[in-house]
Amino acid sequence: MMPRALWRSVAVVLCGGLLAGCVADQTPAPDEPAGPDATARKSITIAMNREPTGFGPHQTTDSNLTPVFLATLIRYKVWDNVLEPWLATELPATERGTWTVLPDGRMETTWRLRTDVTWHDGTPFSASDLVFGWQVVLDPQFAAMEAGIPSRMESVTAPDEHTLHIVWKEIFPDANLLVRGGLTPLPRHLLETDYRDDVTTFAAHPYFTTDYVGNGPYRVSSFEPGVGIRFDAFPAYFLGPPTIDTIHYKIVADQNTALAQVLANEVDITMRSAIGLEPSLTAKERWESAGEGTVHHVQTGWSNVGPSWRNPWFDDVRVRQALLHAIDRQAIVQNVLFGLTTVPDTKIRPSDPLFPEVDRRVMKYPYDPNRARQLLTEAGWSPGPDGILVNGRGERFSLDARATTGERDTEAVQAIVLDYWKTLGMESQVNNLPRRTADLPENMGQWTGVCFCGAAGGSLEPNDPMLTDWHSRFIPTEENRWVGDNQEGWRGGDTLLEQWAVELDRAMREQLRLEVALRWAEDLPALPLYFNTEITTVRTGILNAPPRLGSGGANAMTWNIEQWNLE
User: How far apart are CA 562 and CA 233, in angstroms?
Assistant: First the structure.
């Protein structure tokens, strides 16, 4: 059992930081009017704790941010669970002859594009911009972060300006799921010459930061790294001018600073749990109860501890199982996370239709420190003279433990988990990094101990590209510049994932997804701690902006941002 003193110390850290945040500077940002009179405002401020490094497919951005400035072939209507054509006029379908499986096992899809789309500089958008984007993303010298789906395409061509033809190397049931991670449009008229002249410097082109030109509902007016982005409505947006004139995207790394700004109505919306669990309760008590806005708590993802696949200690599943058995996850949920979430056994959310069957069959790891010690003994670890575990080679069980600096809830959980492991005879060194540093290619997927990095490998949701999240081909390595999505290094699901990846029957695909979830729990490539409760705050008077319901690149709260409105 966790010592009461540690629980109290965690509470003091959280609550002490909270009180400090509540007295932070509450001066309204320049040119951003504050106060309850929302009807006079033509702009809103969105705060998140994620700092974009740019707007290109090789840079760190966020699924909630991309639909603001970039339109893709389709978009995902979050609350309806429906894929909707966006740049396209319709989705490819076998009954229309635009989705064909070839006799040799390849596949073809044909996309009809809208004729009224323009880039923000006024140049008409064409299918060639998608062809060019595909070529750039697959260039190994460009090192795009999401090349998994584009790499499955044998060819992408433009028979005419408003038709896109894709030949797939093999059957790919998610061929309609072409959001940004599937096929990124790039303005050929602005970039192709520079790309052909020198591909080695192309990734540093100013287009991707200060000179960005998109095709979405809002254009980028200014980009200040570490500060934020200003977006202004694009009057010629093909679905009609957005209702809100200006959106200020504000980077607020500290959760208590974000809370202070919510309470002062300096920000209209916070996303991605910018204010954290403890501050969100204060927001409900002091802000929501006063009618100032709504605080949403939605289980959208998973919080894991990721043992490094590069560390041979973790090759033995008994070690990973012992680490999980040693953690009283339910106590963490109740004492640190205020009972607002639940403990997972694998990566299927309670709201998923598969959850009842998964919950009945999945391998579970209840809190059992005695079982943890037994497993470690079986794996060859025994206490040394000072009580620290050592193996047959005399190596001490000493772990580097990484988390994101400033994520107060995660850091609190990290301290508790490390204390549980200490009782087993494990020592640890905390090496937390700011998010921007942690997201650099040289740091992604390269920790040698354990990483409290959320759901580093993605989800098992119906519209998530599971193959790129979990197949061993996408383990981050030096060869792929450490940008693979399978950061846990899982190899045990390859066969099931390969079957799932070519199965067109929807019912069979769901059965395979179930089997992947069960196999994941058996192999335990990461240690599931709790379902993340994503916190979104929306100020009263902001219309048509519900929170997102799931994780994964297709899920974005901003999917309909041109429809957001002010009372």
Answer: 8
Same domain flag for 368 and 436: yes
Do residue 188 and residue 319 come from a single domain?
no
Cα dihedral value 463, 468, 470, 476, nearest 10? -150
pLDDT in tens, 285-296: 999 999 999 999
- State whether 233 and 312 are in the same domain: no
pTM over 0.90: no
Give, for 563, the enclosing helix (H) or strand (E): none
Written as one letter, the residue type at 426 is M
Length of the chain (residues):
567
Query: What does the alpha-carbon distance between residue 332 and residue 342 come to, in Å, rounded to a whole number?
Result: 10
Report yes or no: 399 and 450 within 8 Å, Cβ to Cβ. Answer: yes
Query: For residue 117, what are the contacts with CB-CB under 8 A and spacing of at least 6?
Result: 71, 87, 124, 125, 215, 238
- What is the bridge-based pairing of β-strands 107-112 and 163-168? antiparallel
Return d(Cα 242, Cα 236) in angstroms, integer.
Answer: 10
User: Which residues pair with residue 153 across a beta bridge?
Assistant: 168
364-373 pLDDT tens trace: 999 999 999 9
CB 296 within 8 A of CB 289: no
Closest CA to 554 of 95, 160, 81: 81
Q: Which of the four pLDDT bands, split at 50, 70 and 90, describes residue 460? A: low
Concatenated DSSP letters of 527-549: EEEEEEEEEEEEETTEES-PPP-
C-alpha span between 267 and 48 (Å, rounded):
10
Q: Give the β-pairing of 246-251 and 43-48.
A: parallel
What letter represents residue 361's amino acid? R
Residue numbers of the domain that contains 449: 300-532
The number of distinct structural domains making up the chain is 3
CA angle, residues 86, 90, 91, in degrees to nearest 5:
95
CA angle in degrees (0–180, nearest 5) for 469-520-76: 40
In whole angstroms, give the CA distance from residue 126 to residue 148.
23
